[in-house]
Amino acid sequence: xxxxxxxxxxxxxxxxxxxxxxxxxxxxxxxxxxxxxxxxxxxxxxxxxxxxxxxxxxxxxxxxxxxxxxxxxxxxxxxxxxxxxxxxxxxxxxxxxxxxxxxxxxxxxxxxxxxxxxxxxxxxxxxxxxxxxxxxxxxxxxxxxxxxxxxxxxxxxxxxxxxxxxxxxxxxxxxxxxxxxxxxxxxxxxxxxxxxxxxxxxxxxxxxxxxxxxxxxxxxxxxxxxxxxxxxxxxxxxxxxxxxxxxxxxxxxxxxxxxxxxxxxxxxxxxxxxxxxxxxxxxxxxxxxxxxxxxxxxxxxxxxxxxxxxxxxxxxxxxxxxxxxxxxxxxxxxxxxxxxxxxxxxxxxxxxxxxxxxxxxxxxxxxxxxxxxxxxxxxxxxxxxxxxxxxxxxxxxxxxxxxxxxxxxxxxxxxxxxxxxxxxxxxxxxxxxxxxxxxxxxxxxxxxxxxxxxxxxxxxxxxxxxxxxxxxxxxxxxxxxxxxxxxxxxxxxxxxxxxxxxxxxxxxxxxxxxxxxxxxxxxxxxxxxxxxxxxxxxxxxxxxxxxxxxxxxxxxxxxxxxxxxxxxxxxxxxxxxxxxxxxxxxxxxxxxxxxxxxxxxxxxxxxxxxxxxxxxxxxxxxxxxxxxxxxxxxxxxxxxxxxxx
Length: 645
Ligand code: PRX
Hints:
The protein contains 21 helices and 31 strands. The protein has an eight-stranded mixed β-sheet, sandwiched between helices. The chain has a seven-stranded mixed β-sheet with strand order 5-4-17-16-18-19-20, sandwiched between helices.
């Protein structure tokens, strides 16, 4: 193995940061030795209406999985993100918005945001939305998306954000599953100069969603959209007449804050449920410590609010901390490959948090688009969503950060609510490609296939042995599925679905998913979902989807398709199938490769051997392993001979 370069914490960073290594060790030990005391103390970082007296009540026992943090406390999440900052920083910017068009930007103060949230909260109440009701948010990256989230939180409604890139069908499935009564959307989104027909998508979706009574529409582009009488209302119209004062609903720490759908290895996406108190404590604390956030700094997370990263690290964590959070409507390549760095220069961004796929795509464009912009404001860089390859890490560090800025490679998941494994800028020597060490209160364990815990430097399946306040509580409407998915594979542990290596320094290296989930440009997808979209096409008899290494996307989507008897393989049909998956799920699920497969490798009991399909897609046909159990081993030769690269 090649020598791994280690980047020690620069002395100046260690001195000025919130925690240095000694402090990390001390706090980590305290958090594991006595979690009640540790979280009892850190739980106080947010404002409680009624303070909690119990810190945690948790069981990972598959017969009785329950996860409760600060259960007898009450609070309001929006009041924590807004009201409590008004006295000290009412006139400070809360959201710094940068439009798709570089000529458009806006600064929204905490006072202004508080008022906007109050008006929408009142308007939603006037539409009949009450505590516990579900509201679907299908929005572009405009400030109203954050306003909508916080307005729900203010009145105790549960938001369910659906990423604007999902198709009407995907949107409909999610609305139906959580029985939303209201959808908040915009006429159109704007990304890379192109319009996204959000309202038209909502109209299509709602043909099958009887629970939806109202659709609130923000005017973003002014494009022509249909408004259904009695159902659709303009955001501007319903908020203008409302007062800015909106009484915050007092909710229990364990009342739901949001549902967010995410893909697993089987079935439809799951509605992961997060609750209020523990989630907010964890999002805020990790935001402060992981990014070493200091008052007045400009912090930019490039995610979309449609993903968990946007929830925890654009909206809830930063706003709970009174931070300046930058929200970007556009894409890294528009109008040019310099856009990220132009925004950094324009807004003097101090902390920048993005995904490896963006880094890899920008790396291809060379150094000039980066170095032509002033990045001297940058202090900390972050990475999230997928493993970052050392080459991309080193480029990010050298070219973007001028070897000055520590990189925090943060590992976490929709289900974890916040960052679990990560360096801390002032405490952790960095190894490119490693998410390094656990955050406070996080106890990772590696287990073998039988669930036996492995010690020392080793590789295995990544589990968590204890709970942390940001952990998901259930799958909406299906607690059994929650238990089955995360707590039955390895008894007594939460199983992440990731494989992981631990080195001799106790650093963790995420090796990727060990289940049938793939990670395409940092977007998580179940191969089963793409397969069911493909077989829904009348000409497709069978389909098997696997991931394969892709230079920019991390993983690409490789689909093996068997046509129904009598159908002819053709380039046109291939294109049609790609378009079909885009329509069924959304553009992010478009297969990169479709290989015609007259037969799929199956065991005699009819189970598809994905291991073999993965090897062929990865072009590792020399190491197919044992194929003797196949019903018809000759199909493998055919697949190898017709492999698409
Ligand atoms: O496989 C891991 C990968 O992304 C998965 C979680 O995806 P999602 O729920 O969409 O959340 C993404 C944003 C938190 C994980 O199971 N992943 C996430 N971060 C990293 C990562 N893999 C390696 N390194 C990371 N830093």
